[in-house]
Amino acid sequence: SFDRREGAEEAIAAVKDEVEVILLSGMEPMRKGEVLPLASKVPIHYLPPSGAGLYRALLRLRHRGIAGRLSVDTLPRTAVERTFRELDLGGAGSDEAVVFDGPVYATTEELVRFHEELHRSGRTAAALTGVKAVAERLSALSIPAEWVVPLDQDITVALERALLSTETRRVKEAQIVVGLINVDEFGRLVQTRASEHDVQRLKLDIHRTLLDYVDSLNGYLTPLGSDEYLFFTTRGAFERETGGYKSVPLAREMRHTLDVTLSIGIGFGQTANEAGTHARL
Known about the structure:
By secondary structure, the protein is of the alpha/beta class. Helix content is 49%, strand content 17%. The chain is built from 13 helices and 10 strands. Helix 2 links the parallel strand 1 (22-25) and strand 2 (44-47). Helix 5 crosses helix 6. The longest helix has 21 residues, at 196-216. It starts with a helix and ends with a helix.
């Protein structure tokens, strides 16, 4: 996180030949106007203050017992208006907030002056800023201020976007994924069926369910026997379908609908042989 050009220049110069993406927080004007040309070959992503962070800052002011008109910088006017409207505090065009409407590339000094003039004249009770240096300067001037910090959710989204833009990530998305699916205790299941007709119906139901699942992965399914199936897909498709490897709903669905449990192995690799070996393991 940088609020000054010098610090950002030094940090970017030190790593721009070693990294695939840069994620910055801090002063957006500094990023837009001055940092982008420094690393033209490296994607630069910015972690901005958000409406969710504004909720947190407003709550902190409430806990401090501070109420009244606010001065706000860095945040888009639309985000401020929406947040105030949702909290029934009035829109940013009302008497509840004054949103900074100065230069796009405002400096720390300009932002501090904006908040200070409003507070000293008695028009605002506190300040909300997306720049850490501004919040620190205002606090030093005994002006109530809160730094609108991105929440964990905002950071997660920014990190995901940054990672998706890297060359390594694009290569990984095309990696082959091999899945091995084994129907647990299939022999016992067959024995519980009253007739061969019921056995064939069970096989068809299992095959149909697996086929639908692999279709959602844009993959290819083939049976290896009565109780084992093999499927191929790509890492990008598999990650999207599983929500980032968080869940595989197939096993739960099979348990509920067919009273069948599965053993599943997923393998990644640069080759099908490598991915298949990992799946078997």
